[in-house]
Amino acid sequence: MANARALLVHPEEGSDRIETALGAAGFEVTRTDTAASAVAKATTGEYDCVVSEYALAGDDGVALATAIEESDAGVPVVMFTATDEEGVPEAAFENGVDRFLQKNGSASIDRLVSDVSTVCSGVSASETRQDVSDHEPTASEVTRAVEDAPIGISISDPDLPDYPLVYVNDAWEEHTGYPVEEALGRNPRFLQGPGTDPETVDEIAEAIGNEEEVTVEIRNYRRDGTPFWNELTVAPVYDDDGDLAHYVGFQNDISDRKEAERLAEERAEKLATERRSLDRVLGRVNGLLSDISRILVENRDSGVISERVCEVIAGEPGYAGGWIGEVSSATGRLEIRAASGVSVEPGASYDVAETPAEVQEAIETEELHSGSIEHVADGPLEPKSAGGRRLLVVPLTYGDRQYGLLGIYGNGADVLARRERRVCESVGKMIANGLHSIETTEILTTDRVVELVVGIRDETAALSRIADAVGGEVVHLGTTRLEDDECELYFRADGEDPDLDELASLPLVESMRTVSETNDGVSFAVTVTDSPPLTQLAAHGGVVTEATATADEATLTIEAPPEHDVRSILDVFRDEYEGVELRSRVERESRDRTVAEFAAAVDERLTDRQRAALKTAELNGYFEWPRPVDGSEIAERMGITRQTFHQHLRAAERKLVEAYVDPRSDG
């Protein structure tokens, strides 16, 4: 009944089904579980009906009905109860209950909805009804209605041994597949089978023995052996003398509903299982992330970090252990740097072709790969030989720089599943980021360096194309990284009148601006859409200390730690350009690394705009006295307002001073 409000007075247990049925019928349902609360709500005039259980906390439904009647609230009360206590129905009707229903399966729920709709519509039992005496159906019409009813109807005779069927209608035959001649004369238990619940059978037998009505949901079987769910109501029928004459059975095929309920239960169980699995994953990876973060913060030795990471993995519940290894550029073999928890020894070396497929795939694709013990044989690093059930291989990658592989062995079937693999991939990036930070620090602080002079004779190189557009040699002064792989390159071009007009027409140039002009030349900044390879060197352990270019070639001076692989640095350029050659390789004492380290520390604290403002101001002589330019001129060259320029410059100056006064400050 649309827009009607029902107050359900019922314990929480068992109330969901009632609320759902009333809600489906259009009622707005409010539930409470105590009589006191119900009286307070019912007397507000907001409800059209009260539906109450008899047994309530601290009281009963009869007392509730009495209180509502005495309040003159005029709200009808329907009692829907499981109690079979003697005298309750009589007491209910004597104390204001309009309808009294016994709980007995879904049929009683349907009857409840019908009765609640009736009392809410204002139609009472005493209301004048139409005279239908001339419209009573004939015996043949009743028979036809029973025979054509959409639900199965059967009649059993209790005067015959074993209560056999003496009548079934067409729907009964259709539901069961048994023709009438095979059904009559047999007890309906022949519909039972291996999946029929014995307790349900006993419940039916007990009700029949007590001459009581009963409604159950029972698993029966059709003539062809297929099972179906039968919502069965069996009720006694008495003759005019009050003697038991027959038992009538009403059969409704609810297989579709039961299947929907089964699927809903499976879905709920699946969600619960996934939630439990996710909780285990979160517990595992949260501990892993926390421990590895602490290791990266507390240690500055890459070897120690590798050892500690493997120890943490081995100690985490669900993991058997792990290893960290790297493919040697000299031998092409996988060399294990650290291992813990599994039968893999640090220092061991393996032919890559003999390692598990997931190791080879991770090396080839630089992506995460996993496999399980069920799909592999014995062999180096295989889960079976290493002591685990599943192997996950995680590349340790920072930008284009490869720091090796992390192998993790799970010791459970549900370990290292899809969600966990994604988190482990993040762990790999975290480790690579930490190793890269250590490597960069070593470059800046090492006492000895390898100085490489690299020549690039390729006219398509970015530096040579810029030099060609300017019409002379250019000196690279520095680079500022921007968003979306863009960067701003700073150059100086010597001479009386370098031509910068051609720069803007280059496809690689997004914008160009003059930074400073003197009699000796001009300094300018070029924003390019794709960062040139020299900006990638930091990810490979190299630092550009000097770079010059003409239209024909570019020459770069690069510093790297002595132990670093020179070939990986050269490959950065060879992947992009022709004519790349190593002109010299000299190991020598480092230059003034204190200044370099200080500059790198400051550079990390500055934003892109602060860095650009500081560099542009310095290149234009802003810090000289007397100043050859003022802030307005520099702001105009940067394409920003004077106020914005000074904001960026002051922020950069403050961070520069803080780094000098308190080097340990975060800036």
UniProtKB/TrEMBL annotation:
Q: Which residues are listed as membrane-spanning? A: none
What InterPro entries has UniProt attached to this entry?
BAT_GAF/HTH-assoc, CheY-like_superfamily, GAF, GAF-like_dom_sf, HTH_bacterioopsin, PAC, PAS, PAS-assoc_C
CDD domains, alphabetized: PAS, REC
Signal sequence region: none
User: PAC domain: which residues?
Assistant: 214-266
Q: List, for all copies, the residue spans of the domain called PAS.
A: 138-211
The UniProt entry, under Gene3D superfamilies, shows:
3.30.450.40, 3.40.50.2300, PAS domain (3.30.450.20), Winged helix-like DNA-binding domain superfamily/Winged helix DNA-binding domain (1.10.10.10)
- Single Gene Ontology MF annotation: kinase activity
Q: Which UniProt keywords apply?
A: Chromophore, Flavoprotein, FMN, Kinase, Transcription, Transcription regulation, Transferase
Boundaries of every Response regulatory domain copy: 5-118
Give GO terms for biological process.
phosphorelay signal transduction system
PROSITE patterns xref list? PAC, PAS, RESPONSE_REGULATORY
Q: Does the keyword Cell inner membrane apply?
A: no
Any Pfam family the entry gives: Response_reg
Name this protein carries in UniProt: PAS domain-containing protein
Q: Which organism is it from?
A: Halorubrum salinarum
